[in-house]
Design a protein that fits this description.
With about 190 residues, the chain is mainly alpha-helical. It has helices spanning about 5-30, 35-50, 60-85, 85-90, 100-105, 110-120, 125-135, 140-145, 150-165, and strands at about 175-180, 185-189. The protein is built from 9 helices and 2 strands; from the N terminus they run αααααααααββ.
Amino acid sequence: MTTATQRNQQIRALYERERDRLFRAALRVGGGRRAFAEDVVHDVFVKLLTSYESLDDSRDLGGYLYRCTMNGCVSRLRKEAVRNNPLVALLLGSQMAPGPGADARARLNGVQREAIDALGLLPGRERVAFCMVRLDDAPLADVAQVLSCSVPTACKLVQRAEAILGRAGWGASASASVSVSADKVVAHG
């Protein structure tokens, strides 16, 4: 049994260790939008505070927080997609999600700005799957768990993202690709 002080110290240490990694992951998925990433990571740590007592102390909670971050990104992207639907925009007025602030875009080089714009072309589930597999080296099983789908479906989401990026001139289809054969995942390239 931990005291309140020990609990707070453990949560603080976890926050200090994981916040930057989680923020960068959410920033990528959110297309460079700082407010998006801050909100997602904030929600993840609020969830940690409310559920800490029920979590297993013996396991590394970094993976749990990463999955919560990706789940938070998916949820937020879904909400944005609904809000940005033309019919909803017509009824409620346009509430387009803002891109990265002008100051943030000014600090990026041309390739970085183009990469953020290219990620913005991807639908939410494909964007999360692509970022997890290609940028964070997460296994497809983790993607499937986060997106509540099968491993073959997670693979298809990554392939779809690569195809969209390839059509946009990013050559993702020419890079290493992923496929599922029977029960195993195969990386090509």
